[in-house]
Amino acid sequence: MPTHDALVITGPTATGKTGLSIRVAERVGGEIVSMDSRQVYRGMDIGTAKVTAREAGGIVHHGIDLVEPEERYSAGAFARDARRWLREIRGAGHVPVLVGGTGFFLRALTHPLFHEPELERERRERLKQWLRGEPEERLRAWLRVLDAPTAAALEAGGGRQRVARALEVALLTGRPLSWWHAHAPAEQSPLSLRVFVLDLPREDLYHRINERVLAMMRAGLEGEVRALMARGLDESAPGLNATGYIELLRYVRGETSLEDAVDAIQRATRRYARRQLTWLRNQLPPDAVWLDARRPVDELADEIARSWREDEEGS
Predict the structure, then answer these.
(1) 180-196 CB burial, b ≥16 within 10 A, e <16
(2) For residues 18 and 108, is the Cβ–Cβ distance under 8 A?
(3) Whole-angstrom Cα distance, residue 279 to residue 153?
(4) Strand partners, 8
(5) CA-to-CA distance for 63 and 88, rounded, in angstroms?
(6) Three-class DSSP category at 181
(7) What angle do CA 158, 195, 179 make, to 5 degrees?
(8) If you compute the radius of gyration of the chain from its CA atoms, what whole number of angstroms results?
(9) Total-model pTM
(10) Burial status of residue 52 (CB atoms within 10 A of its CB: 0-12, 13-18, 19 or more)
(11) Contact 31/67 with Cβ under 8 angstroms?
């Protein structure tokens, strides 16, 4: 039996996870499972840095283009799908390589979800309407007071939708979501994962983020947003309530300039990266291996593949 259920490559946005994961998959005979809560949406390619067929180089990818932007895709759905993909990958004699920075998706595998309590429908709808009018940072502040453990867990990959859901549970049941996690039976047993984390000094990380946003604009992100708007979609769609899309929706509607929209995307992405780092430092297992993302990608891939093989061969 293998020592671990899967190999994980994570880290803040713009640290090079996609390219590295493909090199690692080539070395260990792997298939990749995307652990990105936005890459599940069809038609959202540029703004989510979705891997292209050319970049994939023949490596099989799972967890991409699963639903339409107007549909919801929860961490629970990801956990169920990911477990199925892992079984299929193992069954084919390959290594599952989980890749992405959505901490809540990762946590759903290491801390399995539970059957949530029933919420009275009419009260929940009224509360949802009220929460919808509040800024996300205010919702996060309230959640830190009502449910600090869940607020910390949602720092990376937990967008407005999940924060609001945690507030609904706390306010409508009288108990925080973290309490339900601790006292309600889990749907599955936790997975054992070998985790590698890409890290960068703050200045280098911010530079990469700024350049990546500019590259997305050159690649046609504005056109992608306009195409989604032409389908009648806006930020009320679960998929479009995301950095890069919200800001350009406002630009296309004439509410801001293009320069200000791009600057807002860069600032929001930097804030998200800070939340990811906070989550990673506080939520990952102590045996997670932190790697300097400035090192050559082939050198990093060799190290990860070697460490993985040593672990598995020693099992």
Answers:
(1) bbeeeeeeeeebebbbb
(2) no
(3) 6
(4) 98, 195
(5) 13
(6) helix
(7) 45
(8) 19
(9) 0.82
(10) exposed
(11) no
H-helix or E-strand containing 8? strand 6-10
pLDDT tens by residue, the chain, 315 residues? 568 999 999 999 999 999 999 999 999 999 999 999 999 999 999 999 999 999 999 999 999 999 999 998 988 899 999 999 999 999 999 999 999 999 989 988 988 766 667 788 889 889 988 998 899 889 999 999 999 988 887 876 567 888 998 999 999 999 998 888 777 655 668 899 999 999 999 999 999 999 999 999 999 999 999 999 999 999 889 999 899 999 999 999 999 999 999 999 999 999 999 999 999 998 898 999 999 999 999 999 999 999 999 988 875
Tokens of 280: 């990673």
Question: Per CATH, which fold does 121-183 belong to?
Answer: Histone, subunit A (1.10.20)
Give the domain 6-113+186-313 fold.
Rossmann fold (3.40.50)
25, 57, 86, 113, 301 from 286: Cα distances, Å: 24, 33, 23, 22, 21
* In the block, residue with structure tokens 């929460």: 131
| Residue 121 CB neighbour total at 10 angstroms | 8
**Residue 79, helix vs strand vs coil:** helix
Distance CA 134, CA 240 (A): 17
Distance between first and last Cα of the chain: 7
**Domain ranges, ordered by start, for the chain:** 6-113+186-313, 121-183
Q: Is 7 helix (H, G, I), strand (E, B) or coil?
A: strand
Give the integer Cα–Cα distance in Å for 134 and 43: 28
Q: For residue 152, which amino acid is it? A: A
Domains 6-113+186-313 and 121-183 share a fold: no
